[in-house]
Amino acid sequence: MPAINVNPTRQELTRLKTRLRTSIRGHKLLKDKRDELMKQFLDVVRENRALRKKVEDALMAAHGSFTVASALMSTEMLKQSLMYPKQSVELTMDFQNIMSVNVPRYHFKTRTADAGDVYPYGFAATSGALDDAVDALSGVFQDMLRLAEMEKTSQLLAEEIEKTRRRVNALEYVKIPQMQESIKYISMKLDENERSNTIRLMKVKDMLLKEAIEEKREADQEAMKSFREEEEL
């Protein structure tokens, strides 16, 4: 018996067959989408891992330089040197579509194009280690933005993969088998009805044939009776 109640009619059978063809085609497309999403996800994960190591190394180098600078300079001088930055950054965001998933893309633009504006202090009273630390932080900023992109992208792709996987499984293990079972059930019921109609027609034909034979026998008997009566006269 089918998992859902269906009317065993030819119209319902045609409708279910059309839905089944559409579901099978959709199942294949969703499987292809899932496989491509997995490929994109693995590429992002590999880039994310390499970029994370690069960012961590750069931040460790910057931290080391700040540690050296703080040892060579007084705390007041270090704070005063970094108190009033010369450079500012404008951050913008747009979206890129990856397999129907809108993932963010971050872009930044500095207020001025002069690379020296990243240092908000004069070089006479500061340590070279501070210059190295500021330069390292300035250089890692783009990689940090890219890493944020990769983190968000991997999260969104993982969510879409899980959503697509559930749809594929629902079609493969629930919807398509249900429709196939319903089609089988309706076909069986229609064949049953057709056989029943054939049997009924055969019975009706036999009854009509018997009635015709009986009528002919009665007519023959009447004719014989009339013939005998004429002979007796």
Please explain how this structure is put together:
The mean pLDDT is 85. The longest helix has 105 residues. A two-stranded antiparallel sheet has the order 1-2. The radius of gyration is 43 Å and the shape is rod-shaped. The chain starts with 9 loop residues before the first helix and ends with a helix. The chain is built from three helices and two strands, in the order ααββα. Helix 1 runs antiparallel to helix 3. With 233 residues, the chain is mostly helical.
The mean pLDDT is 85
Number of DSSP helical runs: 3
Oligomer state equals single chain
Q: Which structural category fits the helices and strands?
A: mainly alpha
The helix/strand series, from N terminus to C terminus, equals HHEEH
Determine the strand fraction and express it as a percent band. 5-15%
Number of strands: 2
Q: What separation lies between the terminal Cα atoms?
A: 75 Å
Q: Compute the gyration radius: what is it? A: 43 Å
Placed side by side, the strands forming the largest sheet appear as 1-2
Main pleated sheet = 2 strands, antiparallel
Helix amount = over 70%
Which outline best applies?
rod-shaped
Low-confidence stretches: none
Key features of this structure:
233 residues, two-stranded antiparallel ribbon, mainly alpha, 9% strand
How is the topology of this model organized?
Elements: H1 10-72, H2 75-81, E1 89-98, E2 101-110, H3 128-232
Antiparallel strand pairs: 1-2
Describe this structure in a few short sentences:
The protein contains 3 helices and 2 strands, in the order ααββα. It has helices at residues 10-72, 75-81, 128-232, and strands at 89-98, 101-110. The chain has a two-stranded antiparallel sheet with strand order 1-2.
